[in-house]
Amino acid sequence: MSYSEEMVNDKIEVLNLDGGYSAIQVRSARILKRDGVEINRNFHRHVLMPDADLTNEDADVVAIASTVFTDEAKAAYAAQETD
């Protein structure tokens, strides 16, 4: 009997927020398998704002962020943070 575990981003959502900027919500699934058959799945969510550090994010999240987190969106978020 062998067990394996994998983490996958199974949902990536762009949230349009008030203030002229968007956030990215990432849902990750931790999948536990026994002999190749899924026996358990747990979820974790995290939200990325325009000033987020993307160093540890998967390539698909970084690609979406590069489209959504424009200079204008970053400026709108920074202005909202100072209000």
Structure description:
The protein is of the alpha+beta class and 83 residues long. It has one domain (3-82). It is 27% helix and 49% strand. The protein has two helices and three strands. It has helices spanning 59-68, 71-82, and strands at residues 3-17, 21-34, 37-48. A three-stranded antiparallel sheet has the order 1-2-3. β2 (21-34) and β3 (37-48) form a beta hairpin. The mean pLDDT is 94.
How much helix is in the residues?
A: 25-40%
Radius of gyration: 16 Å
What would you call the shape? elongated
Count every helix, treating DSSP H or I runs of 4 or more residues as helices.
2
Major sheet characteristics: 3 strands, antiparallel
**Strand content bin:** over 45%
Distance separating the two termini? 57 Å
Mean pLDDT: 94
Question: What structural class do helix, strand and pairing data support?
Answer: alpha+beta
Topology as a string of helices (H) and strands (E): EEEHH
What spatial order of strands do you see in the largest sheet?
A: 1-2-3
The tally of domains stands at: 1
Low-pLDDT stretches:
none
How many strands?
A: 3
